[in-house]
Amino acid sequence: MMKRRYRDSQSQGQPRHKWRYNPEGDSGFLKDEKPTNLITQVADYYSARTNKTLEQREASPIIHLKKLNNWIKSVLIQLYARRGDSVLDLACGKGGDLIKWDKAMIGYYVGIDIAAGSVEDCRTRYNGDADHHQRRNKCSFPARLIVGDCFDLKVPFDRVLERDAPFDICSCQFAMHYSWSNEARARRALANVSALLRPGGTFIGTMPDANVIIKKLREAEGLEISNSVYSIHFGEEFARKKFKSSSPFGIKYNFQLEDAVDCPEWIVAFNVFKKMAEEYGLDLVLVKNFHEFVYDFMKNPEFVELMRRLGALGDGSPDQSTISPDEWEVANLYLAFVLRKRGQPDRARANNRVQREHTHIAKEDIMVIRSED
Ligand SMILES: C[S@@+](CC[C@H](N)C(=O)[O-])C[C@H]1O[C@@H](n2cnc3c(N)ncnc32)[C@H](O)[C@@H]1O
């Protein structure tokens, strides 16, 4: 594997902003648990997750939720991806969206994830190699895969991806909240997206809906909210269940989702996210809690048919299983968003993009970026 080290970043500077660092709040957070340790914990957790056979997957207690999540991501991709688009998939994981991008007939794909094991699985999927006896189709678009921390302050992604950018679409599915461990990382995440998208380009994503989580927390007796498939636990530092609007970063909780997640995550206050995104030239196009998303897009017969095919709600026949109330409650903990980068497309720059032909990725083609502490 190719390895790179970066000592400092040449990425664009941070714009002026309203939310100032809260040294007291941040140092309190840093004293107990260094974000670096938590970031490693997240990376190790996802890297260690093994692939499942089709039978194991179907037996998962959250299989319908997983199918619903796939439906939501598919709808976002179908709505915003155009044939030939160049796509940047931040926190691409095991490449669970590769088939969706292939169906959208994109022209180029770059996937980045902090978990080396997941990127290796993504490579296998991309190449169409059989996995657990599952036949897979090879992806038809050229691609590049990178192991790295998408929100690292020391990694200048605009330089790393200089020959790949600008992208028409940036996608960050179920991962943006990992950047909210502190303000600098949250800003770096948005700065990276903005620097790499073309003017007029689209940023699509899904992440926890902080409004719902905080509301449930306040309604709960203790510091935990849960049902049979998930639990969210806040530390004693949040015993008063009050969150200062002056320090919206570093609000950590532990999230466990049966058969899917078990690691630290951070609250993303959407109003702050929206305003901060505007500072980086990214304007809100759409935000919908998953429940609202389902109700709204199920009015479209094309997406009803897609839902039937994916089987998240069963296939309509009475003997078919469907999403359970507990899974549906978890869906309510998430939202989908779409942002658009301000400006008009710069055709000259888009045409400069390096033409890539290959549709096979070897192990040694994966670039590994390690930043120095
Ligand atoms: C819930 S999974 C989602 C994976 C994929 N986007 C999907 O929808 O299938 C979250 C992913 O975020 C990745 N991740 C977490 N923090 C990251 C970081 N700082 N940089 C890159 N990837 C990160 C994890 O390794 C994991 O693959």
From TrEMBL:
Q: What is this protein called?
A: mRNA cap guanine-N(7) methyltransferase
GO cellular component terms, alphabetically, are: nucleus
Looking at the keywords, is S-adenosyl-L-methionine present?
Answer: yes
Kindly list the GO molecular function terms attached to this UniProt entry.
Answer: mRNA 5'-cap (guanine-N7-)-methyltransferase activity; RNA binding
Q: Keywords on this record?
A: Methyltransferase, mRNA capping, mRNA processing, Nucleus, RNA-binding, S-adenosyl-L-methionine, Transferase
- Identify the residues that bind S-adenosyl-L-methionine: K73, A91, D113, D149, Q173, Y178
The Swiss-Prot or TrEMBL record describes its family as follows:
Belongs to the class I-like SAM-binding methyltransferase superfamily. mRNA cap 0 methyltransferase family.
Write out the residues that bind mRNA: N69, N70
Organism field: Kalanchoe fedtschenkoi
At which residues is there a site annotated mRNA cap binding?
K94, K100, R125, H177, E265, Y334
Q: Does the keyword S-adenosyl-L-methionine apply?
A: yes
Stored InterPro entries: mRNA_G-N7_MeTrfase_dom, mRNA_G-N7_MeTrfase_euk, RG7MT1, SAM-dependent_MTases_sf
